[in-house]
Amino acid sequence: MTETPTSPTRTTPDQLSVPPDGRPYREQPQWRNDFPIDWPQDEFVARREFTKFLVLTSFAFAFGQMWIVFQNFLRKRKGEPPIMRIAKAEAIPVGGSHVFDYPGPHDNCIVVRTGHQTYYAYNQKCTHLSCAVVPDIANAQFHCPCHNGFFEMRTGIPTAGPPRRPLERILLEIRGEDLYAIGTVVKA
Ligand code: FES
């Protein structure tokens, strides 16, 4: 005759609270009787908490996106550049760069990451005759290959060659894990 566990009663094989050796509870060590672990119930609570977490984070994300759409609506009315997500901040490695379009679809820009929390972004258009500048991160500068123009990476100010005006700077902000363009600065 098969013995059945005495406390708590478990009948189905997939209920994990049945003692692992299959022996009845009265033959189990005292601690197991004192602290029976109801794994199915525990997993149920964990799943419920996880679902709650997903719903809340989805709501926060949706609200965040709607807020950006609303802000951009107001900015457009005022003639200001939009707020636009560029990339995940960590997706750009230190010493790396990433090209994007801002504020319009044909405004080529570049963001470089020079340190853990240090990013610089500019319109790629050289202020001499509009060639695309390329980053030279090791020397903290941008180079324009057309006529050998150079710009300081930290400020966008021209340092050598024919350009006389700084690069158009893109203002950045990190929101959560993402890097956003939030405006432009054109220096005289
Ligand atoms: S176009 Fe860049 S230096 Fe002339």
Layout: helices, strands, pairs:
Elements: H1 30-34, H2 39-78, E1 84-88, E2 97-101, E3 108-115, E4 118-123, E5 134-136, E6 141-144, E7 149-152, E8 158-160, E9 169-175, E10 178-185
Antiparallel strand pairs: 1-10, 2-3, 3-4, 5-6, 6-7, 7-8, 9-10
Bound molecules: FE2/S2 (inorganic) cluster (FES).
- Gyration radius over CA: 30 Å
Q: How much strand? A: 25-35%
Number of helices: 2
For the record, what CATH class of the domain at 81-185 applies? Answer: Mainly Beta
Structural class: alpha+beta
Shape: elongated
One letter per element, helices H and strands E, the order comes to HHEEEEEEEEEE
Chemical compounds bound to the protein: FE2/S2 (inorganic) cluster
Averaged pLDDT: 83
The name CATH uses for the topology of the domain at 81-185 is Rieske Iron-sulfur Protein
What is the CATH homologous superfamily assignment of the domain at 81-185?
Rieske [2Fe-2S] iron-sulphur domain
Most strands sheet: 4 strands, antiparallel
- Can you tell me the residue ranges where pLDDT is under 50 for at least 5 consecutive residues? 1-11
Helix content: 10-25%
Architecture of the domain at 81-185, CATH level 2? 3-layer Sandwich
**Biggest β-sheet: strands ordered side by side in the sheet:** 5-6-7-8
The number of strands is 10
* Gap from first CA to last CA: 94 Å
Description:
- Helices cover 24% and strands 28% of the residues.
- It is an alpha+beta fold and 188 residues long.
- The protein has a four-stranded antiparallel β-sheet, with no helix packed on it. Strands 1-10-9 form a three-stranded antiparallel β-sheet, with no helix packed on it. It has a three-stranded antiparallel β-sheet with strand order 2-3-4, with no helix packed on it.
- The radius of gyration is 30 Å and the shape is elongated.
- FE2/S2 (inorganic) cluster (FES) binds next to loops.
- FE2/S2 (inorganic) cluster binds next to loops.
